[in-house]
Amino acid sequence: MLKILAARLRQGHRTNHFPDVVPPLPDRFRGRPALHPERCPEGCKACQDACPTGAITLDAGLSLDLGRCLFCTGCTEACPDHAVEFTPEFRLATRAREDLLLAPGAEYALAGQLEARALALFGRSLKLRVVSAGGCNGCEVDVNVLGTIGWDLGRFGIQIVASPRHADAVLICGPVTRNMELALRKTLDATPDPKLVIAVGACAISGGPYLEQAEQLGGAPGAGIPVDLFIPGCPPHPLTILDGLLRLLGKIKS
Amino acid sequence: MTAPAVLLNGTALPLAAIPELPLPAFQDAVARACDDGHRLVALCCGADLRGYAVLAAEGSPELRVLRTTFPAGPFPALTPRCPEAHLFEREIAEQRGLRPVDHPSLKPLRFHRAWGTDRDAWDRPPGAALDPGVAPFYRVEGLQVHEVGVGPVHAGVIEPGHFRFQCNGEEVLHLEIALGYQHRGLERILEGGPHRLTFKQMETLAGDTTIGHGWGHCLALEALAGTGAPAAASLIRAMALELERLANHTGDLGAIAGDVGFLPTAAYCGRLRGDWLNMTAQLCGSRLGRDLLRPGGVRFGLGAERRADLRQRLVAAAADTANAVQLLFDTPSVLARMEGTGRISPLQVHRLGLVGPPARACGLGRDARREHPVGPYAARPWPLALDDLGDVAARARVRWQEIQASAGFVLEALEQLEAMAESPLAGPLGELRPDHLAVALVEGWRGEIAHLAVTGGDGRFSLYKIVDPSFHNWIGLAMALRGEDISDFPLCNKSFNLSYCGFDL
């Protein structure tokens, strides 16, 4: 007992203070890319060719689909002119799929809060049921970490629950494999209405590194599941996930 | 009998140098080697029906490779003579549509059709739906016996799989684990590769083992190309591999504490796991080590300032982890829950081919860092973490020993890197040599990761076999549950913490 108390004293209080204080991110963190088409040499397609998921297109000017982006170094290594650069910006979540399309100069439409009725229902208590549908356990572990004392998700009224019957929202990871399609649909059906759907990670948004595989459906949108919140990344940093959830609940507005 | 070809971890051989045996002689050789202290690292069959077996002897760096050709139809199963071949033969049946006759448990593994052929090992009508998990389960009959089905969607934030328990009251008589829900067709698409997405798929084939599988793939490519990684790159890879182990072992000890209701260690280790992950993020920007590795080397180096920062973080996290974990082993009520729970025997480990911490917790010194060392692991023998009781407590103690060894290794590596400031971080990979076979073994945190790559005449993969340690070890979890209370399943499960997607591929 004394050892337990001594350990308690030693380990201290370690919950971060987000959103009031943003915990430090590593200097090599790759957040929302910035596009500089003015730096592109005439006719160069190096970034587009280097992008493994086809997130970058040059057909109508330089644009980048964050729903497909794996935040890898393919484009930045391919471009000596730094027309694509990663920034430390961790805030990435959006309410609409098309808002994930980055275009130069355009304002990035971060997720807005729920509509009044949904906000009244979920704003102070949101229960999440997580389903991994072909996920690699990357997004899963970075969702799970929000439940640890380092993040203490419960202080925002958000909780991960064991049964879809207890859930307000289904959080989907993974590209939705054909072998998980039925189980995912049954989980969605078992979640009482009204409910929200949250897609976490490139796989759940577009199929991610598996988007060309016949064994998957292209994430929640590909499976025809309406999504209320998109959180891109491979995997998204826990800060990105938490920021998205708090924006949805109107707890971060700026 | 023709002697098998021998190669070392991270090297390649021309296919012509591997003697081809008729199937009966091939199976004899594998079965005899397994009776004789070898274990089956991989057994597989390509689209051209050429089959390969890789065998490792305990305590030897040599890997023996055998080659055969399977018939385009049923063949006598090896599994009755060599139980550790059981999943490999089910895989061959599913991928190639060849039926291993007299296989004791011939069920689909991942619920997909055979690739590029109409053959079907189960003679299922073409076009009929293949519902995952729908297959005959082993059943125990009796008035008091009941069946408990769990999953594919589980209660926690965890990947999907179906668990079927045969119980007599609380006692589990048998557990059968049906997976395949996460199947993404990885090995199918690798044939004809590498492709543009291959490396990202390797990093995410089991996303909590990004470095382990990423390094396995790099090592296989470098062996096929006849090149390697510079010394500093190898050292950074090993550092990242050990950080991956530190994060996951720490998290799992916390999860074990959580499942016996001991919240202090559960809470502290949950946070500390994040501290270890954040060290990997200091290396490459990603907590899971995404994009740190590249074929031919690594993408990111460590300057003096970064090394000092990492050393400081490491010393602090190691001390806090020691404090949190020691609490676990100092608390009698925790020990009482772990000791004697979920025991497996050395014989089971040997016959079923288990690897990693579950094997070492039974006293078997299977560790690729020691037996098949590459890069910095070759400098001196890796200290084996061993225990002999084979229960949850033993697996926890092995993990704790490994945490200490890995933390020490990373500290030393940070010092060694100082003298390597001039070493390049990557070299050119070069072209893959045609008609070659390469074997790459990496001791990931769950155990031995094997990548077997074979090139065709065009220098592209004609076959690429991935063996996650979970492939070997899921059956170990099933064995650990026999005779246990069903309520101890979560505890036993955490002590293995196996990968679903690493198995399902």
What's the short story on this structure?
In chain A, 50% of the residues are buried.
Going across the biggest sheet of chain B, name each strand in turn.
1-5-4-3
Main sheet makeup of chain B: 4 strands, antiparallel
By secondary-structure content and strand pairing, the structural class of chain A works out as: alpha/beta
Strand proportion of chain B, as a percent range, falls in 15-25%
Q: List the secondary-structure elements of chain A in sequence, H or E.
A: HEHEEHEEHEHEEHEHHEH
Mean pLDDT of chain B: 95
Mean pLDDT of chain A: 95
Query: What proportion strand of chain A?
Result: 5-15%
Would you mind describing this structure in some detail?
- The complex is a heterodimer of chains A (254) and B (505).
- Helices cover 26% and strands 14% of the residues of chain A.
- Chain A has nine helices and ten strands.
- The longest helix of chain A has 13 residues, at 178-190.
- Chain A is globular.
- In chain B, the strands form five sheets. Chain B has a four-stranded antiparallel beta sheet with strand order 1-5-4-3. In chain B, strands 2-13-14-15 form a four-stranded antiparallel beta sheet.
- The longest helix of chain B is centred in the middle third of the chain and has 29 residues, at 231-259.
- The two termini of chain B are 36 Å apart.
- Classes of the chains: A alpha/beta (254), B alpha+beta (505).
- At the A-B interface, helix 1, strand 6, helix 5 and helix 6 of A face helix 4, helix 7 and helix 8 of B.
